Amino acid sequence: MDHSKEITIYDIAKNLNVSPSTVSRALKDDPTVSKKTRKKIFETAAQMGYRSNPFAKNLRQQQSLTIGVIVSDLDSPFISSVVSGIEKAAGEAGYGIIITDSSQSAVKEAANAQNLFHRRVDGMIASLAPDTKDLAHFSPFVEKNIPVIFLDRTSEMAESTSVVIDNMQTGYMATKHLIGQGCRRIAHVTSDLQHNIYALRYKGYRDALAESKLPFEESLLVIAEPTEEASEAAAKKLMGLKPMPDGVFVTNDFAAAVCIRTFLEQGVRVPKDIAVVGFNNEVIGRLIKPTLTTVNYPGREMGEAAARSLVNHLKGAGNIGSISTMTIRAELIVRQSSLKK
Amino acid sequence: MDHSKEITIYDIAKNLNVSPSTVSRALKDDPTVSKKTRKKIFETAAQMGYRSNPFAKNLRQQQSLTIGVIVSDLDSPFISSVVSGIEKAAGEAGYGIIITDSSQSAVKEAANAQNLFHRRVDGMIASLAPDTKDLAHFSPFVEKNIPVIFLDRTSEMAESTSVVIDNMQTGYMATKHLIGQGCRRIAHVTSDLQHNIYALRYKGYRDALAESKLPFEESLLVIAEPTEEASEAAAKKLMGLKPMPDGVFVTNDFAAAVCIRTFLEQGVRVPKDIAVVGFNNEVIGRLIKPTLTTVNYPGREMGEAAARSLVNHLKGAGNIGSISTMTIRAELIVRQSSLKK
DNA sequence: GTGAAAGCGCTAACAA
DNA sequence: TTGTTAGCGCTTTCAC
User: Fold this and answer.
1) What does the pLDDT look like over B200-232, one tens digit per residue?
2) How far is Cα of residue A37 from the mean position of the Cα atoms in its chain?
3) pLDDT, tens digit, 9 for 90 and up, residues A114-173
4) Architecture of domain A9-52
5) Are A273 and A338 in contact (CB under 8 A)?
6) Those residues with Cβ within 8 angstroms of residue A147's Cβ, 6 or more apart along the chain or in another chain
7) Which residues of A23-58 are buried (b: 16+ CB within 10 A; e: fewer)?
């Protein structure tokens, strides 16, 4: 397509009356090349407008300096902060990232995995789709010894490195906080418990209740996808319970915000009648009234941690699976929506 | 690193007693290869676990099937929806995307451009950093005839294809709406007017005022970056004006939300005392009280449009610059914050 | 319908 | 310190 010819190391070599290998070496700042020639080569390279050809390099070295990323929904605040962290850490290490979005579909996830496999990424970071059941689409990577790091949404099956937060701990922490505020009848609005991140948060919630000898009934557990409609329905369901719960732990900020809005519309006061804790520390939490107590889920840090660990591994530390799970600290951010005292 | 050997077309060829060229042809479904051998080759390729080597292919064909993307802040709702649109359209056309984030810095943007240039992307999509003044870092692409599409944040200097919304029109539309609601003294909170997207919205605002013969004074124009502090300060500034404005057009939803919160805290009623229109249609707009009237800025569509147009061009339609600007329709979403009637 | 052979640009033995 | 050479895996012209 472009007709301005590409400069190669051969052109530089000819121009300077040295051999291509010398140029190649010089360009890598190899000290076996004399300082003087190195300098000369650098200069003419720049002046001739040389750019190295990564394809030739990759072909030779069998590596792409590229990391494949699969996420479930790029267009979400949490994921985009994760990706931004990955991009940062990978970029600093000289790696590029190829991003694919599974749109929450296991089928598309598998297609993306295949695609990235064929593009010969050096490593993978994946956040699984909600409905991903088996990990067969990652086995080509395993066979070829291409490291895969799972992030946030992992699978128990995965015998691999993953970066997660301590979901159980966060569930426990959030519930404990509500108990500390005097709540005695605490509900839990969450998503599909098949998924381990939700199952673990649920377990933390139950543990906290049990520890404080507070009762649990099935009706206090509401499963609702974090859509506007479902969250509104969930809130109404809670209001219908007798007696009404005096606290609720919602595993998503957006859903929590919708719940609060619904409560207020019906004259239920927050936090006085019902205290609310959300999850994710999204920006909305600071803007609604009352401001939202939430769990800060450090997406950026998680992305950075995943990428850094992948790169370290790639750069030949070589100790596969030396760490199998990295747990990033999540913290409770207390705001108005949960403060009864 | 991986010891399980890679299968090449030579292995397949040997296995089947045909020549590598036949295999190469067959794998591309070239009809000059007999149907029978084609089928056999496909089967053994699959069975042997062959994957084509994109580096060799790229080296031969001088193209990477990759699009470089530069954004100013990946971790923002608008940008992430843009990227998600790019990913979708590019992926459908068989292109991968390499994403880089300039963190709003012109310097980093230039570094990213260089990086992508060296990675030999086939095309580029860029959303400029706020402080990017000159476009020198894109000239290597121009010289090599690599198409660059600018998105959203463009530059007048750019003699290239760009995808934008009609910013002037949105400014006009938003202001006109406020006028229609009976506002007579309308303020404008926006960012650095050096940047054309803000300059154009401002012009639209002024045009609407002029058309309705409404007065404008300098004090009605408040420049504030969309941070929490600056937006709060902006709101306070407006409340201090005498007489106080009865309407305000804020060029960012988050900033608008902070303004509303600040107004309400000081006992200023929205929309009764002051009507508010935001910009971007972010999710917060639906959750705050009152819900926020805003301009819907279709990030996903813009990303898709940019990628599709780039890919078309790449696939050899070849008509460089046949379209120089694609304008995507933006629309006003009316909610409570602006309804005086 | 199929094969032989050259070459894309680079790196890394090995030689000098 | 520098040069020679082979080869990474693929495509494509030209020949058969």
Assistant:
1) 999 999 999 999 999 999 999 999 999 999 999
2) 46
3) 999 999 999 999 999 988 888 999 999 988 889 999 999 887 766 678 999 999 999 999
4) Orthogonal Bundle (1.10)
5) no
6) A123, A124, A141, A160, A161, A310, A313, A314, A320
7) bbbbbeeeeebeeeebebbeebbeeeebbbbbbeeb
Q: Please give the CATH number for the structural domain made up of A64-165+299-329.
A: 3.40.50.2300
Tell me the per-residue pLDDT of A286-321, one tens digit each, with 9 for 90 and over.
999 999 999 998 999 999 999 999 998 888 755 555
Nearest one of B82, B95, B160, B87 to B122, comparing CA atoms = B95
Q: Quick one: pLDDT at residue A1? A: 38
Across all strands, nucleotide nearest B13 (CA–C1'): C3
The ranges of chain A annotated as CATH 1.10.260.40 are 9-52
Mean pLDDT of A231-252: 97
Domain with CATH 3.40.50.2300 in chain A: 64-165+299-329, 167-297+332-338
Pick from B7, B58, B84 the residue to mutate for testing the A interface (most A CBs within 10 Å): B84
* DSSP calls for A143-171: HTT--EEEESS--TT--S-EEEE-HHHHH
User: Which chain A residues are within 8 Å of B257, Cβ to Cβ?
Assistant: 287
Q: How long is the CA A319 to C1' C12 vector, in angstroms?
A: 26
CATH number (3.40.50.2300, 1.10.510.10, 3.60.10.10, 3.10.20.600) of A167-297+332-338 reads 3.40.50.2300
| CA-based nearest residue in chain B for residue A73 | B84
For residues B115 and A96, give the distance between their C-alpha atoms in angstroms, rounded to a whole number: 9
Instruction: Decide if B55 and A52 are in contact by the 8 Å CB cutoff.
Output: no
For residues B168-173, average pLDDT:
97
- A201-211 residues labelled b (16+ CB within 10 A) or e (exposed): bbbbbbbbbee
Distance B103 CA to D14 C1' (A): 53
Provide, in whole angstroms, the distance separating residue A21's CA from nucleotide C14's C1': 13
Question: Do the beta carbons of residue A283 and residue B254 sit within 8 Å?
Answer: yes
Average pLDDT value over all residues in chain B: 92
Report the phi/psi class of residue A152: left, alpha or beta, with left for phi > 0 and alpha for psi in -120 to 50. left
pTM comes to: 0.89
